[in-house]
Amino acid sequence: MKLSANEEYGVRCLVRLAYATEAGSGLTIPEISQAEGVSPAYAAKILRVLRKGGFVKAARGKDGGYKLARPAGTIVIGHVLDALGGRLFESDFCDSHTGQASICTRSVDCSVRSLWRAVQVAVDQVVGKATLRDLLQNEREMNSWVRTIPGPSALRVM
C-alpha cells in the first residue's frame, strides 16, 4: 500500500497554500508548480480537485491566486485524502478483487480482509485527527504529535 502522487502532492500543495494564506497572500499555479516540482498542468489538476472539495478557493486579478477556503485548523487531512484518492481499504474492496471467479473464494471467512480493515482503522486514527494546521509544524514537532495518538504501539515508533 502506498499513497498516490495525487495524495502526496495534494497535501504538499495545501501546506504551501497554508503558509501563503497565513502571510496574507495567494499563490498562482506557476508558483505552486515551481515550488513543488510538478508541471503546471498537474498542479492545476490537483488544485481543481482541492477546490471542488472545498479546501481552496481561487481569485482572479492582481491579488488573485489560490488560498485556503477555510482556516488550516479546520481542514482534516483524512478528508483531503478522501477527496484526492480515497481510502486504502473500502468495504467493497473484496467485490472488485475476486480473481477469475465471480465471488472471492475467501468471501465467507477472510483473515486478509480483517488485516486490511485493521490497517484502515489505524490510518483513520491518524489522518482523522491531523489537520492542515498540524502539518505546519517542523518534522520533530510532528513526530511528537504522532506519538500522542492512541492506538497500536507501532504508530508510536516513528
Give a structural overview:
By secondary structure, this protein is mainly alpha-helical. The chain has a domain at 5-86: Winged helix-like DNA-binding domain superfamily/Winged helix DNA-binding domain (Arc Repressor Mutant, subunit A). The protein has six helices and two strands; from the N terminus they run H-H-H-E-E-H-H-H. It has helices spanning 5-22, 29-36, 40-52, 77-84, 111-127, 139-147, and strands at residues 56-59, 65-68. Strands 1-2 form a two-stranded antiparallel sheet. Strand 1 and strand 2 form a beta hairpin. Helix 1 crosses helix 4 (77-84).
The name CATH uses for the topology of the domain at 5-86 is: Arc Repressor Mutant, subunit A
Characterize the biggest β-sheet.
2 strands, antiparallel
CATH class of the domain at 5-86: Mainly Alpha
Shape, per Cα inertia axes: globular
Low-pLDDT runs of 5+ residues are: 153-158
Secondary-structure content class: mainly alpha
Overall pLDDT level: 82
Strand order of the largest sheet: 1-2
Q: Total number of helical segments?
A: 6
Q: Helicity range of the residues?
A: 40-55%
**End-to-end span in angstroms?**
18 Å
The CATH architecture designation of the domain at 5-86 is Orthogonal Bundle
Topology order in helix (H) and strand (E) letters: HHHEEHHH
CATH superfamily of the domain at 5-86: Winged helix-like DNA-binding domain superfamily/Winged helix DNA-binding domain
Strand content: 5-15%
> What's the count of strands?
2
Radius of gyration: 18 Å
